[in-house]
Amino acid sequence: MDVPEGLNEEYYQISPDILQSFNKFRPPLDIFMFMEDVGRIAPYYKVGGRLSKEQIEQLAGLVKDGFIFVSRKDHPVYVKHIAYQLDLVLIDRNLKESEIADIFIEALTMRMNEFLDQPVAAVTDKLWADLMVLTEYLWNDPYRIKALAKRLHKEHTLAQHSVNCGVLALAIFIRMKGKNFSSGDISRNHFDRLTAGFFLHDLGMSKIPLFIREKPKPLTTDERQKVDKHPMLGYEMLTKLDLKYKEIEACVIEHHEKLNGKGYPQKKSGRDISQLGRIIAAVDSYCAMITKRPFAEAIDAQKAAAMISQDKAYDPEVTKNIQAWAMTLKK
C-alpha cells in the first residue's frame, strides 16, 4: 500500500515483528487503521481495552497488508516498549533517526542499570546483545551516532554516566577516524569490542559502595583510596565475565591515566596509553563535568569542552574533537 503524502509525519506503520512484540490482547498504545476507501486514519484499538481473538487475527492481516499505524504522539510509550527488544529498531523502517536515537538511549541505560546492579554473565549477555544492535546500526552509517550524542543524560548516575561516555566516546572515535570506516581499515570485531569498552569502562565502580559514589561532600582519604581501585577492580572482573578483549581491557584499566603520568592505576604517560584509553579518559572527565552530580552542578557543554582542552593531562587531538562536537550543540 502507498502511504498518503504527509501521513508518516503524524503516524507510522507497524510491521508484523513489531505487532508480535506487543501484548497480544492488550497492546501498550493506541492503534489506528487506514481506511483506503476514504483515504483517512480511524481508531482501531484504544489503550486500556482488550482485543478479542477475532480482532487479533484481523489485526495480524491488516498489519501484513500495511493498513495499521500508531501515532507519533505515543512515541514515549513506544520507546519504553521497544527498549526491551532493541533489535526491532533494525526492522522497523518507519522510525525516524531521532526516534531511533531515543530508543537506543532508553534501552542502553536500562541495560546498563541492570548490569551494574548485577554484573554477572547472564546480564552481561543481554547488555552485549544490545551493544551489538548499536554497532550493527552504526556500521553502515557511523554518522548516525550524532543523533545519540545529542541526547546525553543531564544527571549523573553510574549507568547514565556509562551511557553518556559510551555514546560520546564513539562519536569522538568516529570523528577521529573519518573515512577509515569505509576504507576497511577498521574491522567489525574491533568496532564491536571498542564500543563495549567505551560503555563498560567504569564497571569497577559497581564494586564501590553507593554511599561513597553518591556522597555530596568531599571524600575522606580512605574513601578516595577505595574509589581509586575501581579501574583494577573492573579489569579483574573482565575475566569472570568472559570479556578479556584488548579493546575492553584498555578502556577499563586506562580511563584514569593521564599524559603527564599523574593518573592511575599504572601511572602510564604519553603514547604508552592506548588511543582508546586516551579517548575514554578525556570523555569520562568531560561527561562528568556536564552532568549534575551530588557534589557539583553541571557545567555548560562548551565551557566544559574549553576547560578540558586546556588540561595538559588529556590528548589534545581528543579534546579538540570534543570541542568541535560541543560547538555543534549551538547549531
Automatic annotation (TrEMBL):
InterPro entries: HD/PDEase_dom, HD_GYP_dom. Keywords: Hydrolase. CDD domains: HDc. Residues 141-331 form the HD-GYP domain. The keyword Hydrolase applies. The keyword Kinase does not apply. GO terms for molecular function: hydrolase activity. Pfam families: HD_5 (PF13487). This is Metal dependent phosphohydrolase. It comes from Maridesulfovibrio salexigens (strain ATCC 14822 / DSM 2638 / NCIMB 8403 / VKM B-1763) (Desulfovibrio salexigens).
